[in-house]
Every structure is written in C-alpha cells, then in structure tokens.
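@channel sequence for tomorrow's demo:
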Amino acid sequence: MAVTYTKTEWTDRVVQRPRTYTHVENSDESVTHTPAPGLVLFEGTPRNALNMNHIEQGIADCADAINALEAAATTEKVYAVTIPATGWNGSAAPYTRTVTVSGMKAADTPFVDLALTGTYATDQAMCDDWSQVYRITTANNSITVYANDIPSAAIKVKVRCLRHG
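structure tokens (generated this afternoon):
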C-alpha cells in the first residue's frame, strides 16, 4: 500500500498591526475586543476545515499503512517433528523421507535443529544420524528430508519457520 501525502506549506498571516484590537465598553458593562490588524500584508495559509481535514486524512492514511505493515509482518511458528528411521525412499543416497507436519506451508523458510533429550547416549546417536541429513524442503503440511544415509533411530527436531504476512 503506497501512501502519498501532499505536504501543505503553512505560512503566517502578516498584518500591519498584529495583536491590535478596538476596545468597546458595552451598555451591560461587558467589553468587546474586535481585531484591528490594519492592512493585511500577506494572507497566509487559511486555517480552515479543508486544510485541517487534509491533516486528519494524512494521519488516517499513515495509521492504515502501519496496520497493513503489522498484518504483513514476519511471524514465527515452531513445530516439534520426529523424523522416523523407517519409511525412507531410495536404494542409495540420496535417501528421502516425507514427514507430515500439520500447518507447515510450502512458502515457509525452515530453520531445523535437534531436539536433544538430555540423555547422552540417545543424543549422541541422534547427532550421528543428524549429521547425514543435508537438506530439508517444505510443502503444505509436510517436510521432505534428504540424507546421505538412513538413520539408525528416529531423529527429534525443532522446525522453526518464518512467515511473511
């Protein structure tokens, strides 16, 4: 959404006698002060509804643009995924395995890392198997894992995706 705004160059009204008034005492003992500026030397920019509404519209357009930017901002979604040791495709490298990830989008940009368990032997085996993975792609509701070797056990990972809009 492109926002354009034509800036108003505001100028002051210049008069012969600024801040000068005639003073009239009324019959009810009130006083009336009436501007008596003398000659108007320069009219200046009118302070009227048209110009003020122009300012208001500019502010509203900016607010709309900010709201649109916030709606299109990058968000993050994190998925816990288990890559099984079974069901791999291929008789030689590269091996592939498609895993269902509900909510994943083809346009997601994934950042994948191990979800370690805290148990040394399990985590070491996962690290060894994980070292064989060289690529992960996204599709709607799934990821496809590419590996040089089929893992010996399931690999638990966190898939962090950035979404735009």
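heads up for whoever presents: The two ends are 14 Å apart (CA to CA).
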